[in-house]
Amino acid sequence: MINLATKDISHSFSKFVVTAMGVGMLLGVVLLMIGVYRGMVYEAEVLLNDINIDLWIVQDNTLGPFAESSRVHEDLKNTIMAIDGVEKTSAITFQNIQLPQKNGEKLRVFAVGYNPFDNISPLNQDRLIEGRRILKSNYELVVGVKANLKLNEIVTLGKNSFRVVGITKGVVSSSGDPIVYMSLKDAQELQFLYSNPRIRNDRKRGILNNDSHMVNAIIATTKKGYDKNLIAQEIKRYKYKSVYTDEQQSEILVTNLVKRASKQIGLFTAILVVVATIIIALIIYTMTLEKMKEIAIMKLIGLPNIMIVKMIVQETLILGIFAFIFGNIFAHLVYENFPKKVVLITSDAWVLFGVVVLASVLSSFAGVKKVVSADPREAIGG
To answer: What is the pLDDT of residue 279?
Structure first.
């Protein structure tokens, strides 16, 4: 029975292959869309995974620096450190800044400010591909490879000049921007201190800028044997701050940044699958029309409908499988050229394969209906 389908395909093999490649590119786009979503989730969590702490202490009634503005005093870390069960604490800042490029343009990057002498570091040493980590309190940067800066290059940010002492790979912000690491003092000056004219203007108004010792969050790790959820509740109750565990912060980040995008990508992916199904159905229907006389002859010599129907279904499945293979190859050839990370995983490909098989079976109904209604008399011009 499969021989009928293969023999029919062999008669117009080049047309069949070109058609499968066309549908395959559409399925490749579907796989890439799924990969874009996976990449968004990965990018949203990569920095959190590198920081690798248990608790996030942020401004009261806020969701933390990844979702909204948060400011707390830097010395809060000392108060948190005194709580039973807390092992290490550190202050940290996050901000988007414009990094000057050689061509005169500016690149948006995500700056992470931390104390290089604390026991908690957001910089994963395994991601360093050149240079070293920050060893001074001022004027040193570690940048991502996508920041287009070279080791020992001098960069001007705000009122100061910084030297690039290290380059990392594989870490970006939740929005896909390159990461820049700097000392906490430098980050506080960039984020919280105003320009000299603004300071003079504020002094004349009787306003003093006291934000230089503010940070966006206090991060902490807990000792073994202690429940971090209970410690979080204690901090929230007595220190009047919002506290989130690492799992809660990850959920907040993914929910705020990825949930809406995932709905849009999901809808677009569903539309592409429906379009691919319709295209396959039209192709099979056209192929069936082209051989209606041959089908009528087969029915005239007594070949049962079930064998002809199987031929149509098998042709459709072969077309769907070939299209899936071409689509998979196409997706793997181009995914690295995307500006944002695309993550292709095997499980997604197998799910898409199941969808393609189901869509192929449904598409074959168009040709099957035509086959069943074929009149054997057409074979003799009746």
So the answer is: 83
Long-range CB contacts (within 8 A, 24+) of 195-200: 195/159
Kindly report the pTM of this predicted structure: 0.75
What are the tens digits of pLDDT across the range 175-212?
A: 778 899 999 999 988 887 666 666 666 666 666 665 56
Question: Could you tell me how far CA 92 lies from the centroid of its own chain?
Answer: 24
Same domain, yes or no, for 66 and 39?
no
Q: Looking at the chain, which runs of residues are DSSP E strands?
A: 55-58, 72-73, 86-100, 106-114, 128-131, 140-144, 154-157, 160-168, 179-183, 214-215, 217-222, 242-245
Give the pair of three-digit tokens for residue 230: 């209970």
Q: Based on the fold, state whether residues 17 and 146 are members of the same structural domain.
A: no
In a domain, 205, yes or no: yes
Domain contains 271: yes
Distance, in Å, from the CA atom of 272 to the CA atom of 285, rounded to the nearest integer, reads 20
* Beta-strand pair 86-100/154-157: unpaired
Separation of CA 340 from chain center: 8
